[in-house]
Amino acid sequence: MRHPQKPPSGMHPLLAERFSPYRFDPSAVVDDHALGLLLEAARWAPSAGNSQPWGFFVGRPGEPEHDRVLPHLAPSSARWATDAGLLVVTLTRRHVDDTQLLYSEFADYDLGQAVAHMTVQAQAMGLAAHQFRAFDLEGLTKELDPNPGWTIVSMVAVGKAVGGPPEGRARRSVAHLRSAPWSPAE
């Protein structure tokens, strides 16, 4: 069960204060410097065998890339994501270079690491990131036409949040994290 709670003392403020906003300031711009830092943070994430199997398609309001992504948002995400200063389509390459392997079981995990780094970097810059999957995957894949072996996984809206994190956010307990995967002993 999830209980409203505050992060424990000693947790790094970038992690403790992170939240996924449902409102962004449409006048706040993610400039080239900020975009560069976000992508650098992702670039420096760890990956299996240093494969770095991630890629990003980015678009900011007023850019053609942004206009290509918007029609594919689900109504539930379009209500708030359109106001973000940056939309990032995340992709992973599941093919492993220079091997006979056709699939990397780590590629999605590694992409998650890169997006997590981007999220923490956004927080450090006074921005917020909201990761989501409420979009037309088939339509967006057809629109962007990634190279063979590349797969769109998720999207991230980045921008200046309107408001702060909700008080007493509900999180599962540490005990639950440790016990949920296991069957009770008989």
From TrEMBL:
Q: Which residues form the signal peptide?
A: none
Q: Which UniProt keywords apply?
A: Oxidoreductase
Molecular function GO labels: oxidoreductase activity
Q: Where is this region: Disordered?
A: 164-186
Would I find Glycoprotein among this entry's keywords? no
A Pfam entry, by short name? Nitroreductase
Record InterPro entries: Nitroreductase (IPR029479), Nitroreductase-like (IPR000415)
Acetylation is among the record's keywords: no
User: Nitroreductase domain: which residues?
Assistant: 16-160
Family named by the database record: Belongs to the nitroreductase family.
- Tell me what this protein is called: Nitroreductase
